[in-house]
Amino acid sequence: MVKDAGMNSSKKKQSVLCIVGARPNFMKIAPIMRALKKDDSGFDASLLHTGQHYDSAMKQSFFDQLAIPEPDIDLEVGSGSHAVQTANIMIRFESVLNDLNPDVVLVVGDVNSTIACSLVAAKKLIPVVHVEAGLRSRDRSMPEEINRVLTDQISSLLFTTEPEAEQNLLKEGIASDRIEFVGNVMIDTLLYNLPRAVPYSQTLGSEDKFGLVTLHRPSNVDDSSVLSKLIQSLILIQNRLPLVFPLHPRTEAQLRKFDLLEALESSGIRILPPQGYLQMLGLMKGASLVLTDSGGIQEETTALGVACITLRETTERPITLNEGTNVLVGTDPEAIEAAFVDAMSTESREHRIPRLWDGKAAERIVQKMREWSKSL
To answer: What is the reported pTM?
Structure first.
């Protein structure tokens, strides 16, 4: 559904079409839209939601909580396989570009919407700006890794969150004058909303110590053997630290499929429905530690100074290991147990906030875009 986007209402401003598609995008786009909507930004910004994240209630919750303006355009794509979803986004997005012909398309992150919209824009010779460029897990079995690598190759301007990301891009042949280190817009959103975070005691009805769990990666939840081992590890930890587990719809479906949900429910682990951003922020802030396979949560726990155990073999965010509070353990039960013991026995983990994770990344992005757009 396309509203009157009004993208060409001002001849003095460059028109920029910003893309969101799934939950991780919402936190990244919020500060960018605020910065672009300022009178002195130099841009006429509109927002397109592909509809890749098709849970309408959750989508609305995130848009409301993060004060993201209602999308000017909603492609309403919905679910499907990677190929079907990406193809449908491309077909519908091409029609939008034919109608609007923006000066710039801005994409964030690494979801299917990111690569789909970037491909269409690049083939129509519309410059693509990629926010959160250069992150690499070097695991090509992850769909997100494919999306990241390809999006970076066809982007005209690439904004990075950490110095190592620039080195990744340079090794892949991307010219240095296309790369700008600006910091992390996820942390912009976290710091902006921290005063409004819902206290964990309000969500849980208790002020007791707890650990927070999130799982949703296909490599973890689509393999019955891996998922079973992870659930058994969580049950063992639950015996020493109460765990809270907001259950992703995909994960719940797989737990039912593999007959693991009953064991989880009877373990004492507290299962919650999916949480809004402000509720999750309160839970992360109040947790004794977090066990996760989420990339964004690795960054958020680093910013909050909360111990994080990442249940993956690789991470595209190595700065959270080198400077932050994150440890990478994979899915081996013994490694998870050892990391848990270490986290609980360490009074305060030495860490520092990575450079430019200061809440001003979006402002730097708009400033750099303003300078860059003069050459368009």
So the answer is: 0.93
> CA 41, CA 20: separation in Å to the nearest integer?
20
For 150, the token pair is 């390809």
Burial annotation 6-37 (CB, 10 A radius, 16+ → b, else e): ebeeeeebbbbbbbbbbbbbbbbbbbbbbbbe
**Distance separating alpha carbons of residues 289 and 85, to the nearest angstrom:** 35
Q: What is the pLDDT of residues 29-45, one digit of tens each?
A: 999 999 999 999 999 99
Q: In the chain, which stretches have pLDDT less than 70?
A: 1-11, 53-60, 347-349
From the number of C-beta atoms within 10 Å of its C-beta (0-12, 13-18, 19+), residue 53 rates as buried
Q: Cα–Cα distances in Å, from 36 out to 32, 50, 325, 359?
A: 6, 20, 32, 15
β-pair partners for 223 = none
In the annotation, is 216 catalytic? yes
Distance CA 140, CA 145 (A): 6
Exposure string (b/e) for 218-253, b if CB count within 10 Å is 16 or more?
A: ebbbeeeebbebbbebbbebbeebbbbbbbbeebbe
Give just the sign of the alpha carbon dihedral 143, 21, 150, 328.
Answer: negative
* Alpha-carbon span 131 to 42, nearest angstrom: 18
Gyration radius (Cα) of the chain, Å: 20
Question: 324-362 as b/e, with b when 16 or more CB fall inside 10 Å?
Answer: bbbbbbebeeebbeebbeebbeeeebebeebebbebbbb
Which among 49, 53, 82, 216 is annotated as catalytic?
216
